[in-house]
Description:
By secondary structure, this protein is mainly α. It has 9 helices and 2 strands.
Amino acid sequence: MLNAFFASVFNGKTACPQDNCPPGLVDGVREQNGSPVTQEEAVKELLRHLDIHKSMGPDGIHPRVMREQANELAKQLSIIYQLSWLTGEVPDDSKLANVTPTQKNGRKEDPGNYRPVSLTSVLSEVMESFILSVIMQHVQDGQGLRPSQHGFRRGRSCLTNLIITNFYHQLTCLVDAGRALDVVYLDFSKAFDTVSHSMLLHKLAACGLDRSTLC
Length: 215
């Protein structure tokens, strides 16, 4: 029942294209100026800081094993990550996930009150860390993120948005002046379940992300 509900909230645009790169997406997109670098020491550092209390993925490899064998695995993994990044190909095992339903609130009998948590391979999570750092650095350097964007950024949250910006100042000034004040909050239902992957890729391409990372 939960599986049927989780699948029902996805729209047709959410599915990833069969090809590694959607047709026409990377036409005219710049090539990588320098090959993406996944250095052995950087991989080793990520492995050494893995949370050993996290659950393992479908491959059954526990993060504690990866952490304790960091010195032996770093070189081989850096080669695999480098080739994957340059070719735009992801191993099939890295696309598998164990989906666990977690109750958010409300009645336990209602499948709509659960959110799916995907437990993927620790190996793929390390690779994702590299890709995320490249994307975030590129978007920030290219001013793709506005200063007002606080959610989902390191050191910036919904709380910092209220405290650091002039919102808090304006609010207190209006209250001190005895003026009426209305605040409207919006919450997009199932926002992350219905995000179109193809639209995200086009957004990243418009920000000038290179071909290898897009693929």
